[in-house]
Design goal:
The complex is a heterodimer of chains A (564) and B (192). Helices cover 62% and strands 1% of the residues of chain A. Chain A is mostly helical and 564 residues long. Chain A has a single domain, classed as Cytochrome C Oxidase, Chain A (Up-down Bundle), CATH 1.20.210. Chain B has one domain: Four Helix Bundle (Hemerythrin (Met), subunit A) (Up-down Bundle). Chain B contains six helices and no strands. In chain B, helix 1 packs antiparallel against helix 5, helix 3 packs antiparallel against helix 4 and helix 3 packs antiparallel against helix 6. Classes of the chains: A mainly alpha (564), B mainly alpha (192).
């Protein structure tokens, strides 16, 4: 067993090679982290603009309304076309440019080679390329705002025929998504090769921490699902620029075909957005409960089961599309099966915390929030999985509430947990405990105030993607809920300020952290903080599993993987 | 990077593993395109022309033969370097490049004739499928020819020997994959 990156000659790379065009997985991970956090902010601001319109339709927006040009807002009052652009770009930015790349690009890159005891990724140059192909993508999509007809406005699902005939912003959107998909495929090849082939001596598959396992399975999903989306995007692009009719009925095309291909990617993509989060949370909860992860192997097999089922359930997004109802029933059953491995994971997290010596650090608080919010998001998912119920609540705010419980309540809380957990490793300094707790409490409260009432709106018949709810008689009485959601969402936005302050403050002035501030077992904590180029002084040898905490008869309550 | 052995913890060469995984994603890409073709063809059964009335099948059969030969010459090249015969490798690579380029030029002439007859990418759904599928395959052949040329130029240096031929194997994996895709495309687009 040899590792070809062990020998690194001492050399001082120039600033550009070290921080811009770096091939070091840690620098690339941090590049992904800051880029995606920036786009998280952009997506959040777009959401707040949407919420203003829904809470106070037809009212001029105070302070900022006059900044917008006349093709977006007239006298501070939002135009319906701009509203369509906003919900499209909000979802696209959050999904393609924030959640997926922060989980896979940032955490995958930074954590995976460290956790398996490798000195870098298998293909460092490919890794650099995957960042620099990703980086321009959001700007290509957002460039649509500069065109006269505005950016893409057909929803993040871009259903044809509308998406085949919309103005040029849609073409930019397609190019951006193809770019980010290509980056994803490159990343997937790299993670899979790295995890399969660059594990340190003794690091067998069933000694790998859950974050690494989750990125491994997620990469299989990215590798196999993303190219199908790329092929669909290319056909849509050809419909727009080459005069083909793949998705246009008038030339013999098939609009439903797009939906199948889109969801063949985008349903696995839902798991691309949650599996790494589950991995992160498993690591955080075990460390801060000072207990072995309950049912380690069951956790791994549950991830595999979720990923496998994730490939055969895409039709549950299409119950109303006019496809054969018998097929709908098949998709309903396979979808409901996912509840089983998800429940295994949830109970195992609870089992891990049960009678543990909990250390309620901000990372742990966010991880526990993940578990509870994921339960709500998962349970509302079962409503939608049932075809008969789905026909009533599909395309209402119920589904908007559901997706935000899974993606914000789930993935984002895991991101907050992951950032605060690995920050000492990334920058060699700790994040502020008090600011972290303030951010957590405020975010948790206003998150629930924002998204929980959406379920009530949805059951009340509030359609999603409507410009002005006050125009519908049956929604008149529900408008106060909309106002409440809007106010909560602005407070949720403000609640992110402590986090940003904490992040900036801690990078420069945080309390220095040693190698292993959390007394954790996994290999990344055996490297210096921050790890140098090449990560480890000596490639570590692994003697045990990742979660051996509180062994009876030991004087300390942790037992590092590389400790004999 | 260029160390002698890249055998990792799985017991296989890291670079070859990367190529295999890349090919898995390529399979899914062509699956997306071919699957769409099947769906669209079944949705337009009445209006779908018999392929032989539109396409020049004898010419493309020759082209298919050329591409299959190019896979064989590449295998011969690889077998030569495994015996330590560097000139054999160079001959094999050169012939493969030549055959690949011949395939592309015949395909371009086929496109030209078809477009002159009025069979275009925007004219019919069959045209859309035909040019998209064969076009993406052609782009893969083009990329393969460039990759082969790079390997061919490298073969004049000290890079390849009896024990070191991973670069040839990698381009070989890709080239055989592209060849295989063509056999599927030829069957479903031209023959049935």
């Amino acid at each position: 067993m040899t590792n070809n990156h062990i020998i690194h000659t001492e050399h001082k790379p120039s600033f550009i090679r070290k921080y811009v065009f770096s091939t070091d997985h840690k620098v690339i991970g941090i590049q992904f982290l800051f880029t995606t956090l920036f786009f998280f902010l952009v997506g959040g601001v777009l959401a707040l603009l949407l919420r203003w319109q829904l809470g106070f339709p037809g009212k001029p927006m105070p302070l900022f309304g006059s900044w917008f040009p006349d093709n977006m807002m007239v006298g501070g009052i939002m135009l319906p076309e701009f509203y369509n652009v906003l919900f499209t770009i909000h979802a696209s930015v959050m999904i393609f440019f924030a959640i997926i790349p922060i989980l896979v690009g940032a955490f995958g890159n930074f954590v995976v080679p460290l956790q398996i005891g490798a000195s870098d990724m298998a293909f460092p140059k490919l890794n650099m390329l995957s960042y620099w192909i990703f980086m321009p993508a959001p700007f290509v999509v957002l460039a649509g705002f500069l065109t006269e007809s505005g950016a893409a406005a057909t929803g993040w699902t871009a259903y044809p025929p509308l998406s085949a005939i919309e103005p040029v912003g849609q073409t930019l959107w397609i190019i951006g998504v193809i770019l980010v998909g290509t980056s994803s495929i490159m990343g997937a090849v790299n993670y899979l090769t790295t995890i399969l082939n660059l594990r340190a001596p003794g690091m067998s598959f069933f000694r790998m921490p859950l974050t690494t396992w989750a990125i491994f399975i997620t990469s299989i999903l990215s590798l196999l699902a993303t190219p199908v989306l790329t092929s669909a995007m290319i056909m849509l692009l050809f419909d727009r620029v080459m005069g083909t009719h793949f998705f246009l009925a008038e030339g013999g095309g098939h609009a439903l075909l797009w939906q199948h291909m889109f969801w063949f990617y985008s349903h696995p993509a839902v798991y691309i957005m949650i599996l790494p989060a589950m991995g992160i949370v498993s690591d955080v909860i075990s460390t801060f409960s000072r207990k072995p992860l309950f049912g380690y192997r069951a956790m791994v097999f549950a991830i595999m089961a979720i990923a496998f089922l994730g490939f055969v359930v895409w039709g549950h997004h299409m119950f109303q599309s006019g496809m054969n109802p018998t097929v709908g029933t098949t998709f309903m059953l396979s979808t409901m099966l996912i509840a089983v491995p998800s429940a295994i994971k949830t109970f195992n997290w609870l089992g891990t915390m049960w009678r543990g010596s909990l250390r309620l650090t901000p990372a742990m608080l966010n991880a526990v929030a993940f578990v509870s919010m994921f339960v709500i998001g998962g349970l509302s998912g079962i409503f939608m999985a049932s075809t008969t119920v789905d026909i009533y609540i599909h395309d209402t705010y119920f589904i908007v509430g559901h997706i935000h419980y899974v993606l914000f309540g789930g993935s984002m809380f895991a991101v907050f947990a992951g950032i605060q957990y690995w920050f000492p490793k990334m920058f060699g300094r700790k994040m502020d405990d008090l600011l972290g707790k303030i951010h957590f409490v405020l975010t948790f409260i206003f998150f629930n105030c924002t998204f929980f009432p959406m379920h009530i709106l949805g059951v009340g018949g509030h359609m999603r993607r409507i410009y002005d709810p006050t125009q519908y008689a049956h929604l008149q009485d529900l408008q106060p809920i909309n106002v409440f959601i809007t106010i909560s969402s602005f407070l949720l936005g403000l609640a992110q300020i402590p986090f940003i302050v904490n992040l900036i403050k801690s990078v420069f002035w945080g309390e220095p952290a040693g190698r292993n501030p959390w007394e954790a077992n996994t290999l990344e904590w055996a490297a210096p903080s921050p790890p140098p180029h090449g990560n480890f002084e000596v490639i570590p040898t692994v003697y045990r599993g990742p979660y051996e905490y509180s062994e009876p008869g030991r004087d300390k309550d942790w037992h590092a993987q590389n400790e004999e | 990077m260029k160390s002698e052995s890249n055998i990792g913890s799985l017991g296989v060469d890291t670079r070859k593993l990367g190529v295999w995984l890349f090919l898995a994603s390529e399979i899914m890409f062509f699956t997306g395109l071919i699957g769409s073709y099947i769906v669209l063809r079944f949705a337009n059964l009445e209006s779908w022309p018999v392929p032989s009335t539109v396409l020049n099948i004898p010419l493309t059969a020759l082209n298919t033969f050329i591409l299959i030969c190019s896979s064989a010459t590449l295998v011969l090249g690889l077998a030569s370097i495994q015996r330590g015969d560097k000139e054999g490798l160079q001959v094999g690579l050169f012939l493969t490049i030549l055959l690949g380029a011949a395939f592309l030029s015949i395909q371009m002439n086929e496109y030209k004739a078809l477009i002159q007859e009025g069979f275009t990418i925007s004219g019919s759904i069959f045209g859309s499928c035909f040019f998209t599928l064969t076009g993406f395959h052609g782009a893969h052949v083009f990329a393969g020819v460039i990759w082969l040329t790079v390997v061919f130029l490298q073969s004049f240096g000290p890079r390849f020997s009896r024990d070191q031929f991973c670069g040839v194997e990698m381009v070989g994996l890709y080239w055989h994959f592209v060849d295989l895709v063509w056999i599927i495309l030829f069957t479903i687009l031209y023959l049935i």
